[in-house]
Design a protein that fits this description.
The complex is a heterodimer.
Chain A (H helix, E strand, L loop, with lengths): L24 H30 L7 H4 L13 H25 L3 H31 L5 E3 L5 E5 L2 E6 L5 E2 L1 H9 L3 E3 L13 H33 L2 H5 L3 H26 L1
Antiparallel strand pairs in A: 1-2, 1-5, 2-3, 3-4
Chain B lengths: L3 E3 L7 E3 H8 L4 H21 L6 H23 L7 H8 L2 H19 L4
Antiparallel strand pairs in B: 1-2
Chain lengths: ~270, ~120
């Protein structure tokens, strides 16, 4: 390497003697790994899109499914998931502030922002667990596979009313009759069936995509915590190198980026 | 050569210090918070319009566009891509052309299968 050309890097980045990407291998490798992980998540989301459009006439409306908010009775569609998005974006900001502090070797500042990032990550994972709990629990009456082949949902706020995908509602004696002659009553959600629509795919995709993402958030929190300990012990000061914070920062932003896409295509579209 | 930096780990890459310093000046605290406000406002806007009676098709394209806008800010600013070498930009971003292709063919096929009359 020492006999390589000493051409100026700026005019000839591929002239030899320098890394053409101008980053160290650890950071480049994190980018390459994130590229592969992005392909994995893209494949999951695209497959979700394909199947959701294949079953478009029975696919549940996310604005009608995800309506819970802590301490609020009644329906607040998508508010909680919007809050989760805000929490994760905030934790991305604190992460980039930690990286910025690392460039200036400010150990205590890095600790502060990295600590806040970890807390934000834990809040997100906890929120996701709360979402799962309510998704799995479902409503009081559940849903019904009626004897005429239709699928009817219910709503906690409107007891005794049957709701259909096209917007029609049936209540009173007719609803009671349909319920009593129903083939099946479904409560909550599992991998096999759910009360939100007559397809197990809705539950499956919800669990797999949000679960896979949540697993990434959790592993990110663990990794951030390890780096936090290293920073606290002064290991990065001794090495005079804070690039480790930058590398885990890339992973954390990737996790936030994936959530932005999941949030849009799962909940909004 | 004093502007050069040989990385101390096992890989010993030679990094141009001058280029690195140019890269580091782009992202400061002020820019970081500005990007945060942009992301927050776009997200609030997205959630707000999802409740209006705008046609589903317009909503869909709006969401896709705004999500790409958010992705740009996260990747180029938070992940520092704006200030990296062109070689790195292309290496990481060009493969996503394949993803765009996959989106089109998979969604199209999904819709088509749903239209089959058994």
């Amino acid at each position: 390497m020492s006999t390589a050309s000493t051409a100026n890097f700026e005019t000839k980045p591929w002239g030899g003697g320098y890394s053409p990407f101008n980053v160290r291998w650890g950071k480049l490798y994190m980018w390459i790994f994130l590229l592969s992980d992005a392909f994995t998540f893209s494949s999951l989301l695209i497959m979700y899109g394909a199947l959701r459009h294949r079953w478009t006439d029975i696919w549940p409306f996310p604005g009608e499914v995800f309506t819970h908010f802590p301490f609020i009775h009644g329906h607040v569609p998508l508010a909680y998931v919007g809050l989760m998005t805000f929490i994760l974006i905030m934790s991305s900001v604190t992460m980039v502030l930690a990286v910025d502090a690392g460039h200036s070797f400010k150990r205590k500042t890095v600790q502060l922002w990295l600590g806040l990032t970890i807390i934000g990550g834990l809040m997100f994972v906890g929120s996701q667990a709360w979402e799962w709990y309510h998704f799995i629990e479902g409503s009081e009456e559940g849903a019904f596979y009626l004897s005429d082949g239709r699928f009817a949902r219910t709503d906690n706020l409107e007891p005794g009313v049957l709701l259909f995908h096209d917007g029609t509602r049936i209540e009173g004696a007719e609803a009671e009759h349909l319920k009593s002659t129903a083939l099946k009553n479904v409560h909550g959600a599992s991998l096999y069936e759910n009360e939100y629509g007559p397809t197990p795919l809705f539950g499956n995709f919800f669990f797999f995509i949000t679960g896979f993402h949540g697993f990434h958030v959790f592993s990110g929190v663990v990794i951030n915590f390890i780096v936090f300990v290293l920073v606290t012990k002064g290991a990065l000061d001794r090495k005079k190198d804070y690039e480790l914070v930058e590398k885990v920062g890339l992973y954390w932003h990737f996790v936030d980026l994936v959530w932005v896409f999941v949030f849009t295509f799962f909940y909004l579209v | 050569m004093s502007e050069d930096f040989i990385s101390p780990d096992i890989h010993h890459e030679r990094i141009s210090h001058k280029s690195q310093e140019k890269a580091h000046t782009g992202l400061n605290t002020k820019v970081i918070w500005r990007v945060f406000w942009i992301l927050l406002l776009v997200t609030i806007f997205e959630v707000a319009i999802s409740f209006t009676a705008i046609s589903k098709e317009i909503l869909l394209y709006t969401f896709i566009t705004l999500t790409i806008v958010k992705a740009y800010f996260i990747v180029f600013y938070f992940m520092h891509m704006k200030f990296e070498e062109t070689a790195l930009k292309f290496s990481i971003l060009l493969p996503f052309v394949l993803i765009v292709y996959l989106i089109f063919i998979a969604i199209y096929e999904g819709i088509a299968i749903g239209l089959i009359n058994y």
